[in-house]
Specification:
Structural class: alpha+beta
Largest sheet: 5 strands, antiparallel
Shape: elongated
Radius of gyration: 24 Å
CATH class of the largest domain: Mainly Beta
Strand content: 5-15%
Helix content: 40-55%
Oligomer: single chain
Number of domains: 2
CATH topology of the largest domain: Jelly Rolls
Number of helices: 12
Number of strands: 7
């Protein structure tokens, strides 16, 4: 009977079983030495999803490809995935061939904790693989020391304090990653400006081609797909460079066009709303007032 080419991993125990590891010390979190992981030809055919969050760090000897972009640091590559993302491996790996670690944890580990309530703030869990975090040697050492503290706690007997201590340590790990991503954005300012130009050009083209009236207000995904980035990464780059997320840029662009159209008496406010991608004119009026402090009708009257 042929094996399925899509595999879903629902628990830490199942992950260990599939990888041929011993039973995990903790049912909801595990840290795996990448050197112990063997990837066979058979595994290359599999696509996987899971109920787990994962955080990984591999050194530059791992041979992973991250597109054609230039990266500032190549000592270590750190990546993050959230539950239900489709993943696959692209090359075989023998034991001890690659150095690094992988940390997996189930959402139940952080449920009813501050981290559980704030996990969506760590937007890099939804970045694409070529948007990985590249670490300097010092940053890699700091991150690895943090993981060792988590590993030490995981190895202890579970008690009433275990969840709090582990969740706090995970929060520190993610906060450090947030800081290092901010550094990465800063050191790639020229590349980020290119992304900003591409985004603005695509937005102008969308308007000039009449796609607002045909297809409605574009989503962030529309632009991210064409720039070959994840929506979160694109929005975070724009936020870093301009102080505004992608959605704000789109809305401000629409309002700017609306102001020009409102100066003409030829079209009603409803017609202008439809031409700018709004199915319901009152949504347009609400956005316009939110951005300008006055209704479209009032703006037209004073101008």
């Amino acid at each position: 009977m042929p094996k399925p080419n899509m595999l879903h991993i629902s628990s830490i125990s199942q992950l260990h079983e599939l990888a041929g590891f011993d039973k995990p010390s903790h049912p909801l979190i595990s840290i795996i030495n990448v050197a112990d992981w063997e990837i066979t030809e058979e595994m290359l055919e599999l696509k996987m999803t899971s109920d787990l969050y994962s955080i990984g760090l591999k050194d530059k000897s791992c041979g992973l490809q991250y597109g054609r972009n230039h990266y500032d640091f190549d000592e270590g590559v750190m990546f993050f995935t959230s539950p239900n993302q489709v993943q696959s491996v692209e090359q075989t790996q023998k034991r001890n061939e690659v150095q690094g670690w992988m940390l997996f944890f189930h959402p139940d580990l952080i449920r009813n904790t501050d981290l559980g309530r704030n996990i969506d703030n760590y937007r890099f869990f939804d970045y694409e693989v070529h948007e990985a975090l590249h670490l300097s040697e010092a940053e890699q050492a700091t991150i690895t020391n943090c993981v060792k503290l988590i590993e030490q706690e995981v190895g202890e007997r579970i008690d009433n304090h275990s969840q709090t201590v582990i969740a706090s340590s995970l929060t520190l790990l993610l906060d450090l990653s947030q800081r290092y991503y901010a550094r990465q954005f800063n050191t790639r300012s020229a590349q980020n400006n290119d992304l900003l130009s591409q985004f603005q050009q695509l937005l102008n083209q969308y308007y000039q081609q009449g796609l607002l009236s045909e297809s409605g207000v574009p989503s962030i995904d529309y632009f991210a797909e064409r720039i070959n980035l994840s929506a979160n990464y694109l929005s975070d780059v724009l936020k870093k460079e301009t102080g505004q997320h992608a959605k704000d840029h789109i809305n401000n662009f629409i309002i700017d066009k609306a102001k020009t159209l409102l100066l003409s008496e030829h079209n009603s406010i409803s017609e202008i709303a439809y031409s700018l991608g709004f199915n319901y004119p009152h949504y347009f009026s609400r956005l316009f007032k939110n951005k300008t402090g006055m209704t479209p009708q009032a703006y037209r009257q004073v101008n």
